[in-house]
Amino acid sequence: MSDGRAAKRVAKFIKPLRVEPGSTVDLTEDFDPRYRAGVKKREGVELLRTGVSLLADHQARLAAQDTYGVLLCLQAIDAGGKDGTIRHVMSGVNPQGVRVSGFKVPSAEELDHDYLWRYAQRLPSRGEIGIFNRSHYEEVLVVRVHPENLDRQKLPEEAKGPDVWQRRYREINDWERYLTDNGIKVVKVFLNLSKEEQRLRFLKRIDRPEKNWKFSAADVRERERWDDYQEAFSEMLSATSTPWAPWYVVPADRKWFARICAAAVLAHTLIGIDPQYPSLDGQARKELLAARRGLEAEAPGAKHRTD
Ligand code: AMP
Ligand code: MG
Q1: Which residue's alpha carbon is nearest to atom 3 within ligand 1?
Q2: What CA–CA distance (Å, rounded) separates 33 from 249?
Q3: pTM above threshold 0.90
Q4: Using only C-alpha atoms, what is the Rg of the chain?
Q5: At what angle do helices 255-273 and 82-89 cross, to 10 degrees?
Q6: Between the N and C ends of the chain, which has fewer C-beta atoms within 10 Å?
């Protein structure tokens, strides 16, 4: 498939997942966790392979060009499939060019700073793909559903008013705009899981010893707040899907389909950047050719090995 055709196909594929900036999202009404765009699992394997090789090629060019960075933010409810998505989507890329950062309950040092500080520490550099496994969006999700987290953030009184969430949305949008304007593109994927599928995945985590480590009793307590989370997700998606960093809601009940979607969203961004290998100017090319002549002169007539 030509690059142009692949780009069009990817754009068409992810369009239904995109949250139009300015729209109001009701997650339970507007997005189906079981949607699969008519794709069969067998075709999905091939699609993911195509996506992964497209990512590998673009990542190599992104690194060589050293001008843009890409930040992929992954958000989901517990058991949404973030870890597996990262493993599969990045399976083909050079690990040197990728940095994965997970965010858990903030440390004492982190709480001593403004709330975006710890995320800013982990941003990708130019040429890198950074992945946030959970992200600054926790600051308007878990912190909102459990306001005691906000109390721990040692904020001054005037920063804790009832408008705190609206303010955070604006600050996050501004921060992402700043990053985008400076060459760090922000890509946001929300893995949308149904309550029933979460129940089944929790059961697996309890029943299979090799999955036990992924489960804690706290996960069940969080599940009791399902509706509050859905509401916080909906508000977050409505307020922070922007023209410079739109949200994509990925149906997550089928892991294989979620991975294709996440790969496609990331690929779409990289295709948009269209990174190029740097081309040498006249002087640099002359130097290169001179070096070549020198190397050849060391062993005249020798054959070049390519392995
Ligand atoms: P896991 O991803 O399963 O290892 O869990 C990480 C935990 O850290 C989750 O329970 C999150 O809700 C929690 N967490 C992440 N970010 C924050 C935050 N900013 N404030 C409070 N808790 C957080
Ligand atoms: Mg967990």
Answers
A1: 78
A2: 9
A3: yes
A4: 22
A5: 50
A6: C
Atom of ligand 1 at shortest range from CA of 115: 19
Nearest atom, ligand 1, residue 104 CA: 8
Q: In angstroms, what is the span from residue 280 Cα to ligand 1's centroid?
A: 46
Strand 98-102 and strand 247-251: the pairing is unpaired
Q: How many CB atoms lie within 10 A of CB 238?
A: 18
How far apart are alpha carbons 33 and 44 in whole angstroms? Answer: 17
Residue nearest to atom 20 of ligand 1 (CA): 105
Q: Which atom of ligand 1 is nearest to the CA of 214?
A: 3
Q: CA-CA distances (angstroms) from residue 282 to 285, 286, 289?
A: 5, 6, 11
Tokens of residue 64, six digits = 């060589």
Residue 2 pLDDT grade (very low, low, confident, very high; cuts 50, 70, 90): confident
Please give the distance, rounded to the nearest whole angstrom, from the Cα atom of residue 218 to the centre of ligand 1.
11
For position 307, what pLDDT does the model report? 72
Instruction: Summarize pLDDT for 184-218 with one digit per residue, the tens.
Output: 999 999 999 999 999 999 999 999 999 999 999 99
Q: How many residues does the chain have?
A: 307
* Residues in contact with ligand 1 (CB, 6 Å cut-off): 103-106, 134, 138-139, 142-143, 149
Q: Residue 182 has what DSSP assignment?
A: T
User: Would you place residue 294 in the very low, low, confident or very high pLDDT band (cuts 50, 70, 90)?
Assistant: very high
Where do we find the tokens 């890409």? 70
